[in-house]
């Protein structure tokens, strides 16, 4: 039964942490949505490569050549992982935030941008120099599509436009109707970028099937280390724009001009936006994680994770003081990311108690999605001063998020449910 497959081995499985009640316990990392633990396989691959690493695209030495090959082959691995189209470019960045800021820097003149207020700040904020339309939070996936369609219908149909949408919410874990939003965008001549930071670690993402124009994700949420990310998709806007960073690697030729200035011919490949010595280890780690997830198979990963989602939902539903946050309703499909508030508790104190008394690491706060969390908590009646109370006192407007994935053993989820019930 794929739903009962063993978790993938990850780093940190044996880390023990002290409890305030005395003794120690193995750490239950239930904050995958912030950063997932690296796969053991990624660590092993990186360790095997580390003695051989060298500068890429520069050296004539054997190890430089080897590193260049691994670096460039990693693009191919990521392209296969995302099922990209011929001609799509894979640009290595630092993170999803970096990828979306890069795309924002590549928008054509007079581009209109459409983004739901429910986005993570990384998807919400990079477009502020363009003409942005912020769309109100929809309460069903269908309403998301009609809201977007209505906004696009009012726009100048001949000007360039971009829609930015998340695949899975980092707050509610809910899946967004990416295929339908993409169809709506394209029907109105707009392009679309998918923020897959929370989707790619949990579901297969096919650029070809979804028909999105770009996809962004981060290595550290995909079981690789920090510091590397991906922007994949259409080459044209990327190659018409000035390089994101000016420097070596992005420039094909540089020469002094007769007038004393410098003349630069920039690359028209992904290298155009990868100036400077790249994060070879981080890129290789992303490629290793992509291979590991594909080999395990998303059918198995999804089946197993959904079993854990069901267990957490069922456990939380038994506690009347718990309210799970959701835009699209309790039965909406979601990844292993669940946020909630507990009546009578400040969320920060609750998260601290999970850590101190049970060795469970979750996140509390507004999850870099302030407008979304405000919308979700605004519809939750609370006593003043309690978590979710609609005042702006630091620490009072916040929620608790539990998140998990391919490396999570059943015991972590069981301990979490027991802890919530006891608290
Ligand atoms: N988008 C979403 C949906 C996210 O959850 C996150 C990270 N929490 C980001 C973007 C930004 O990712 P990073 O911090 O790796 O740039």
From TrEMBL:
Residues 30-416 form the Aminotransferase class V domain. InterPro entries: Aminotrans_V_dom, PyrdxlP-dep_Trfase, PyrdxlP-dep_Trfase_major, PyrdxlP-dep_Trfase_small. The keyword Mitochondrion does not apply. Its cofactor is pyridoxal 5'-phosphate. One of its GO terms (molecular function) is transaminase activity. Keywords: Aminotransferase, Pyridoxal phosphate, Transferase. It holds the Pfam family Aminotran_5. The keyword Transcription does not apply. Gene3D superfamilies: Aspartate Aminotransferase, domain 1, Type I PLP-dependent aspartate aminotransferase-like (Major domain). PANTHER family: CYSTEINE DESULFURASE, CYSTEINE DESULFURASE 1, CHLOROPLASTIC. This is Aminotransferase class V-fold PLP-dependent enzyme. It comes from Streptomyces albipurpureus.
């Amino acid at each position: 039964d794929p739903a009962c497959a063993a978790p993938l081995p990850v780093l940190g499985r044996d880390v023990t942490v002290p409890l305030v009640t005395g003794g120690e316990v193995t750490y239950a990392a239930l904050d995958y949505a912030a950063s997932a633990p690296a796969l053991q396989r990624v660590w092993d691959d990186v360790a095997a490569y580390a003695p051989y690493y060298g500068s890429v695209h520069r050296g004539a030495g054997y190890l430089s050549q080897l590193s260049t090959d691994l670096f460039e082959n990693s693009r191919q691995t990521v392209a296969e992982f995302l099922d990209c189209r011929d001609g799509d470019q894979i640009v290595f960045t630092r993170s999803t935030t970096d990828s979306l800021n890069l795309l924002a820097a590549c928008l054509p003149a007079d581009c209109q941008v459409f983004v739901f207020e429910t986005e993570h700040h990384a998807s919400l904020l990079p477009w502020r120099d363009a003409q942005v339309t912020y769309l109100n939070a929809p309460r069903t996936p269908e309403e998301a599509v009609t809201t977007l369609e209505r906004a696009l219908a009012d726009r100048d149909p001949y000007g360039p436009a971009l829609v930015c949408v998340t695949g899975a919410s980092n707050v509610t874990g809910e899946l967004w109707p990416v295929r339908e939003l993409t169809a709506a965008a394209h029907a109105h001549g707009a392009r679309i970028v998918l923020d897959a930071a929370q989707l790619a670690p949990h579901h297969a993402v096919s650029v070809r099937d979804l028909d999105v124009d770009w996809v962004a994700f981060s290595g550290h949420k995909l079981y690789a280390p920090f510091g590397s990310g991906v922007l994949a998709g259409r080459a044209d806007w990327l190659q018409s724009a000035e390089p994101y960073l000016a420097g070596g690697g992005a420039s094909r030729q540089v020469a002094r001009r007769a007038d004393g200035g410098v003349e630069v011919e920039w690359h028209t490949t992904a290298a155009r936006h990868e100036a400077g010595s790249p994060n070879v280890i981080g890129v290789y780690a992303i490629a290793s994680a992509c291979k590991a997830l594909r080999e395990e198979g998303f059918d198995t990963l999804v089946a197993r994770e959904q079993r854990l989602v069901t267990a957490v939902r069922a456990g939380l539903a038994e506690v009347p003081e718990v309210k799970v946050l959701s835009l699209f309703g309790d039965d909406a499909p979601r990844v292993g990311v669940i946020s909630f508030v507990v009546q009578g508790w400040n969320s920060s104190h609750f998260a601290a108690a999970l850590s101190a008394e049970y060795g469970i690491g979750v996140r509390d706060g507004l999850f870099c999605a302030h407008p979304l969390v405000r919308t979700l908590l605004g519809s939750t009646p609370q006593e003043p001063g309690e978590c979710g109370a609609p005042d702006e006192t630091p620490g009072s407007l916040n929620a608790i998020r539990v998140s998990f994935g391919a490396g999570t053993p059943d015991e972590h989820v069981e301990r979490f449910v027991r802890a919530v019930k006891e608290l």
